[in-house]
Amino acid sequence: MDFTLPEELVELLARIDAFIEREIKPLEQRDDNIRFFDHRREDARTDWERGGLPTREWEALLGEARRLADAAGFYRYPFPKEYGGMEGTNLGMAVIREHLAAKGLGLHNDLQNEHSIVGNNVGLMLMLAYGSEAQKAEWVNDLAEGRRGFAFGITEPEHGSDATYMETAAVRDGDGWVINGEKTWNTGVHVADHDLIFARTSGEPGDGVGITAFLVPTDAPGFKVEEYLWTFNMPTDHAHISLTEVRVPDEAIFGAEGRGLQVVQHFFNENRIRQAASSLGAAQFCVNEAVAYAGERKPFGKPLSANQAIQFPLVELQTQCEMLRALIHKTAWQMDAGGPFSVSKEVSMCNYWANRLCCEAADRAMQVHGGLGYSRHKPFEHIYRHHRRYRITEGAEEIQMRRVAGYMFGFMKQRAPKGVAE
Predict the structure, then answer these.
(1) pTM (2 decimals)?
(2) Residue 214's beta-bridge partner residues?
């Protein structure tokens, strides 16, 4: 077995690092843009007068960084070559996302809103896999260049992890559909001109088949943003929306009628391994910073690092980082070989453990840094508040563990909703 990273990937990381120093860091320092990353970050990013949405200046800065990265050839790494990409692998994306997150807060990679100089364009990935020819013609170039995007309307106020029990329904009406229902945690809908709405079109609650995905214009009559939900880490772009007699044509169906959950599962598995890698990188950053500070800080005349009470917790965290890194690399490599549905159990393992580990590492870094660590003059509170959400939003860790148990004890296929790919 050879665990050495591919030479071309190592070279790519070096080129990305040089690009960050050459173009991204100067932009981060220009015009007081550092306010979005220092102790003022939450206030600078949040438009409190617009319901807590991201400020336009913040989103414009992220857009400028993405344009620089695209011009330099990095942003489209995972895209197909015909759309300017490098045909990047899942292993490559995992390594890159960990590498960038391990650098800490910065314009190169801000996990709060999935910004990165190496794009994780889920919308494009799904459009290429499930879009009709007409949808691809309309959407692909805009998605690839970041001019347009669509939000995801999956979760409902009364149904989170139990997606097969969604109450939003679409009824056929002539050559189109009428949709009624509600969705919550509808991220990014404030800048999206369409929302990918998942609605039951047939079957019974609990059935995996009979749920269809629709690309719904956000300006359609009956589509309404009820509120943006304020969160532990602001700003918010997580909307609660309602659909009242919203009409869409048959061409709005995304993927096959009644097979919408396949779209969801495809999105979840590939996104979760990348997100796990990001949490690992953030955890490693926290450990590295705590180790460095423990060597510098000298209360009572000796470095903190001389105390086993400081050493041992950080040793345990570093050990967990190393073990998790091996599992993430193996899982991403297997996903490249067998597809996103071939490693469902392993993806769940990586995801729930990485998110938990990141929170524990951020908490330990706060403790080692003392009062300064608790302040917003260090990034640990921000990392904790942001990554705490992933223990819920990427599939609650209890659901992830239940999924692993299903494979371990042999009842996953027996109990899985009929029609959902494993």
Answers:
(1) 0.92
(2) 197, 253
